[in-house]
Amino acid sequence: MVRQAIKRVVSAAGVLVVAAALTLGAAPGAAQAAPASKSKPTALQISGEDVPDEGIVVQQAEDPKLFRMLLSEVSWLASAKPQTSAPSKSKLGPKYTVKVLVKDAANQVYDLYPSASGGPRAYRPASQPSGKKTAGWFYGRLSMSEALRMAGAPLVAKADIANGGIGGGSGEDLSASEVDPVESATEVFTEVRRLFLLNGAVLVVILAGLAGMAFLIRRRV
After folding, report:
1. 112 and 60 in one domain?
2. Are residues 53 and 146 in the same domain?
3. Which residues, including other chains, have CB under 8 Å from residue 172's CB and lie 6 or more apart?
4. Domain of 153?
5. pLDDT tens string 21-46
6. Per residue in 111-163, pLDDT tens?
7. Helix, strand, or coil here: 122?
8. DSSP letters along 202-214, please?
9. How many domains does one find in the chain?
């Protein structure tokens, strides 16, 4: 009886281990294989003062580094809450309208004022191609002027500003590993989900093993 009980415990444990391995192997893969969002930006179009009528288009496929730099200037505006009241028009300076394109179709539209008095400003119109939003004004990133200038806007170079900060170099020698906030958030979510699945699978195996042993001991008694 004891030998038979031991064989049953070993057999049950083996089945649980195989099930756990399959769970751990398939779950992360499924998370990685999740299809990319259909609304993922593919290009940016800039229009405004002293910009050609056809605008300036920066394609992700052609210049991913510059594309990420420009996208980081406006991507956070989609869900942010307004930060300031409307400034005086006389203090805004030249306006540059940036359209976020998805497969050549406008998905988001923002007005940028890199030379505004007191620092760059950004405006989110209520009427958006992707749906109506709350209109609002925001404080722009310090790198706004350099990002627009590198894309082709007629702005004066600011050598002491790079990627949202001061004292970071010329602004043209940016790291190739520029971070995309959207991609970073997706990666963090994937890692957290993977860790959760791993811990959950281990816990299930332990609980199932204990339950099996308790059941066998109870039958033997």
Report:
1. yes
2. yes
3. 146, 150
4. 43-172
5. 444 444 444 444 444 445 799 999 99
6. 999 999 999 999 999 999 988 899 999 999 999 999 999 999 999 987 655 55
7. strand
8. HHHHHHHHHHHHH
9. 2
Distances (CA, A) of 5 to 2, 18, 209, 215, 219: 5, 20, 13, 10, 10
User: Would 56 be classed as within a structural domain?
Assistant: yes
Domain-located, residue 179? no
> Within this chain, do residues 81 and 149 fall inside the same structural domain, yes or no?
yes
Tokens of 209: 């093993």
To which residue do tokens 């940028």 refer? 112
In this predicted model, which residue has the larger pLDDT, 33 or 105?
Answer: 105
Across-strand partners of 161?
166
Digit-coded pLDDT (tens) for 156-201: 987 655 554 433 333 333 344 444 555 556 666 667 677 767 777 7
Give dist(CA 4, CA 102) in Å, integer.
64
Give the CA-trace dihedral at 212, 217, 218, 221, to 10 degrees: 160
